[in-house]
Amino acid sequence: MAYEGYALLFDYKYCSNCHTCEVACKNHLNVDIAKTPGIVVKEVGPYQLEEGNPDAWEWKNFPIPTKLCDLCASRLDAGKKPSCVHHCLAKCIEYGPVEDMAKRALELGRAVSIIIP
Amino acid sequence: MAMSKEWRRENPDGSVSIRSTCWSPPGDHPVGCGMWLTVKDGKLIDVEGDEEHTITQGRLCLRALNLPEIVHSDKRIVYPMKRDPKDRGKDKWERISWDEAFDLVCGKVNEMKEKYGAESILVFGGTGREACIYYYPLGFSTLQTPNVCYGQSGWSCYGPRCSITDYILGAGYPEIDYAGYFEDRFDNPEFELPKYVVCWGKNPLPSNPDGLFGHAIIDMMKLGTKVIMIDPRVTWLGACEGNVNLLIKPGTDAAIGLGLANVIIEEDLYDHDFVENWCFGFDEFAERCKEYPPEKVEEMTWAPAEQIRKVARLMAQKPVSIAWGLAVDQNPNGTQVGHITIALQAITGNIDIPGGLTLGPPSSLLGKWRMETRKDLAPELWDKRLGSTEYPALSNAMATTHPDFTLDTLETDKPYKIHMIWFNSSNLLAPTCSAAPTRWHDAFLRTDFNVVQDLVMTPTAMAAADVFLPLPTVAEHDGIVITHYGRNTVFLGAMNEALRVGETKSDVEICIEFGKRLNNAGPDGTSTWNIFEGDTRDKFVNSFFTNQLQPELGFDFDKLKEIGLYQPGYDYRKYEKGMLRFDGEPGFNTVTGLIELYSTLFEAWGEDPLPYFEEPRWSQVSHPELAEKYPYMMTSGAREYNTFHSEHRMFPTNRFFRQYPDIEIHPDTAAKYGIEEGDWVEVENPFGKARQKAHLTIVVDPRVVHCRHGWWYPEQDGEEPNLFGVWKSNVNTMIPHFDIGQLGFGAGFKSTFCSIKKVDDLDGLVPKKSLDIIKERDELEAQEGVKIDWTRSDLHRDHRVI
Q: Residues B180-234: pLDDT tens digits?
């Protein structure tokens, strides 16, 4: 595929599980969101990390592209961003060559994932 | 301006793309997310976020992204329909033409006015949708009735906060500062990033309340802002790294507020200069706060005293803003919650400063025409507004009837009988709004003629309508998006028609087209609706908006379409510059000219002038004799991304993200009843019951359960008595009628006790008829065999019509 070596970066500490990427992706791929989704958000937590501490939690949402993800090649060809990147309410998805994404991940600190779909 | 001038693009494949900003229907608040709608061969084929929109920047929620499915759904009603009133509750609808609909409805309106007076017509408006700015003129001017009703018990949504703001602060709606007014946003040199945003009884990410684009808070978190959540539930936002949580017992917000103020004053963290110059009644206020030391507040609210101290110290900084939520309104003690919230922002000097609490000017932007349509009512008609004399604190600030009073009128025909109802975008049986919905259901069936305007067949329309007037979606009509309905206009957006399916008419088209036909002239001999030029909607709708925009902003509707988004800028510290008072003097638009920590108006209306805490009306503390039977506190109403209140349940992609309502139960509590994840649970209290599916989670305290609101099942039988299963999961059946605050605001939607038990499935619930709050006392005493200490019901006895 034309965008080999490209990756999606998720600054997932900000992923609010709004499901926007899932529906944006469904619109792009024109698939059944229940049966053949192109991206799925998985929730981890909430866990209370210290008993009695109301400010110590682990509760993260992980967007995970499936093998159907084509990085929105047709959109990239047209000069647009992938639909999940474009529409993400938390603006926590980026895309580009994996080397660039690795550098970007270091800038963003903890709780970042890079996925080559 | 930041946007390109062109708002209509023809694409090489023959499709056309139209720029627009999003509101409703189907619902959301006036958030105005920027989008491009692409149409080909009469079909909406694509929705794409508009990157030139300076606030949403290309982002869209799933409800907007799913518009193609919604616009072309076979669940929509796209032609006017009628049904014989004797067939109410049956699926015996007949398609009619608009000409027939106009003749039929206008005939009935004129008949009711002649026979019974215009006040015999009642208009309901729903929550959040665009109808919020049109249902008032629909009533006052098109139909010329003074009786326009928002049906939620105690007007428990937005109205109380606006009214309290009017009385205490003398300004438009207070909103957190997220630099929305500025084209250059956070880069604007006048803006300062808030250190903390306090989300109090509010989760702005899914709810986008009243025009605040919720994820702007995430934008600010990335720049360094932290969030304090005051809530009975742990939220994802509160759980984010570095954010702070004050987890409280449902309905105890006033005590928390007084406790926070206690710490700020006792530790001398307050802004002496601001208090001395701009606040009224500080000494009395401080004296009251002394009654609420953190240790005592911990007993009332379950929030640890040390956490109260920690949050108070954080909130005493500058700039800090409070996003106050629906929990302020949905509480009989809510007037005091609103009062203490404003007081906290005032004594810490966070009012109207960069990064603090922004204030709208005293008069609404583009609100003038909404007010002026009242001129079409004779003064004696205005005085007939239901409940206006009995609840001056409500009727002074709100133009509506008193909702609880209105149900009494519908049931008893006192002080006069309502013969006709017009529901504009309100499905209040479902219900998002009403308390005791089974009573409203029966009351609606007592009228001669009912009209419903909506997008799909709802339980309310199936039960009670005789004529159904279909609405176009947000993609299908021209309009404006005005945040906070003009009470604090962060921006104004153009909503542009991209296509139109079937034969529908928007809210403003209905006002104008019925207005022209009814040809109403007010006491001054002029009619509001005959002045707009043209016979087709592209002309008269354009003319209408130009008439509103030109005098206030100096440009017409075509210009707004070109601008796309109008951001007015912002003047900080308006109170220093004489910009909040009609007389141009410095200060606030209140009786004393200052922020009233001690309210002169509350005092005049017989209410305590200072904030106080009242225990939730139906809790284990207020009714210890029932504590064993109803051991949990139920809160409700948390919002989700896929739906807007009772809407969207019939669209497969929206429904995919929640098939059934879930009741959130702590795992330890669930274990006591053998309840496992996904089990059906019946939740019950003395007034009603509902069934929802168990979700075991530590986001709720073991003493609390959270239920979903607004649930019905469009896939089920729509006819009576099932009515799309509207009574099966309906948590508002558990909220008593007319159990509200002294000034007429606030019902305990989010804080009532309950029991839970495991049941086999969704079906088989035997509904409870919610009783009258006064009858309930006798009934409960008989049922429970206990003497109930009744404190509040007699408050309403004086004026009640029964």
A: 999 999 999 999 999 999 999 999 999 999 999 999 999 999 999 999 999 999 9
Q: Which of A14, A34, A61 is opposite residue B656, by nearest beta carbon?
A: A34
**Residues on B contacting A at a C-beta cutoff of 8 Å:** 46-49, 51, 57-62, 65-66, 68, 205-206, 214-215, 218-219, 221-222, 234, 236-241, 243-247, 304, 307, 641-642, 653, 656-657, 697-699
Domain assignment present for B161? no
Residue range B709-727: average pLDDT?
Answer: 97
Task: Examine the domain organization and report whether B474 and B426 are in the same domain.
Answer: yes
Give the Cα separation of B499 and B17 in Å (integer): 10
Partners of A17 on chain B (C-beta within 8 Å) are 236, 641
Q: How many domains does chain B have?
A: 4
CATH number for the domain harbouring residue B25? 3.30.200.210
Task: Please check whether residue B609 lies inside any domain of the structure.
Answer: no
Over its C-alpha atoms, chain A yields an Rg (Å, rounded) of 15
Which among A62, A64, A61, A74 has a CA at the least distance from the CA of A27?
Answer: A74
Q: How confident is the model at residue B442 (pLDDT cuts 50, 70, 90)?
A: very high
Residue B62 and residue A58: Cβ atoms within 8 Å? no
For residue A22, give both structure tokens. Answer: 């899932």
Q: Say what the pLDDT of residue B526 is.
A: 80
Residues of A in contact with B234 (CB under 8 A): 46, 57, 59
Note the pLDDT of residue B362.
Answer: 77
Instruction: Examine the domain organization and report whether B462 and B353 are in the same domain.
Output: no
Amino acid at position B190, single letter: E
Could you tell me if B349 and B372 lie in one domain? no
* ipTM summary value: 0.98
Where in the sequence is the domain holding B54, given as residue range(s)? 8-71
Half-sphere exposure of B375 (CA within 13 A, CB side): 13
Q: Assess if residue B612 is contained within a domain.
A: no
Lowest mean per-residue pLDDT among A77-91, B423-437, B631-645, B687-701? B423-437
Residues recorded for chain A: 117
Q: Which domains does chain A have, with CATH numbers?
A: 6-115 (3.30.70.20)
Q: How far apart are the C-alpha atoms of B692 and B635, rounded to whole Å?
A: 14
pLDDT in tens, B245-303: 999 999 999 999 999 999 999 999 999 999 999 999 999 999 999 999 999 999 999 99
Mark which of B71, B99, B114 sits at the end of a domain.
Answer: B71
Whether residue B668 lies inside any domain: the answer is: yes
SS3 assignment, position B444: helix
CA atoms within 13 A on the CB side of B495: 27
